[in-house]
């Protein structure tokens, strides 16, 4: 993720997927489409993956995290608070957009990624 953030800084922003869609093929970049920027960042920093450090960070802005998405229960998860099991094979990036607790006081992190909003 740090490489991606640094790319955005170095290139003075990123384009939208509607202006510059992913095509999944080798070739040259569309310089005109990639020059239309819709988002910029000026800096980033790493946050320790503890609840004490994540809570204030997520309260200020979305936070990119990496997690293990290779387990069957996680891949097929739909709805409610996911309670595990969690693996240690860090292989998928998501964005934490909020935290809270459900009616049973089970704490949760609301995450968004390219698959959907959970």
Automatic annotation (TrEMBL):
Keyword Hydrolase: yes
Claim: Zinc-finger is one of the keywords in the record: no
Keywords: Hydrolase, Protease, Thiol protease
Ranges for domain Peptidase C1A papain C-terminal: 1-118
Signal peptide: none
Pfam families: Peptidase_C1
Chain coiled-coil ranges: none
Domain of life: Eukaryota
Homology family: Belongs to the peptidase C1 family.
Gene Ontology MF term list: cysteine-type peptidase activity
SUPFAM superfamilies according to UniProt: Cysteine proteinases
The protein's name: KDEL-tailed cysteine endopeptidase CEP1-like
This protein's encoding gene: LOC115753762
BP terms from Gene Ontology: proteolysis
């Amino acid at each position: 993720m740090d490489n991606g953030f640094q790319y955005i800084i170095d290139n003075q922003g990123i384009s939208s997927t509607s202006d510059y869609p992913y095509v999944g093929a080798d070739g040259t970049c569309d310089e005109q489409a990639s020059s239309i920027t819709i988002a910029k960042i000026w800096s980033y920093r790493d946050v320790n993956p503890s609840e004490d450090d994540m809570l204030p960070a997520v309260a200020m802005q979305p936070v990119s995290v990496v997690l293990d998405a290779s387990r069957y229960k996680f891949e097929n998860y739909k709805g409610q608070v996911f309670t595990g099991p969690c693996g240690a094979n860090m292989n998928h990036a998501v964005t934490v957009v909020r935290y809270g607790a459900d009616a049973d006081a089970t704490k949760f992190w609301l995450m968004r990624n390219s698959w959907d909003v959970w």
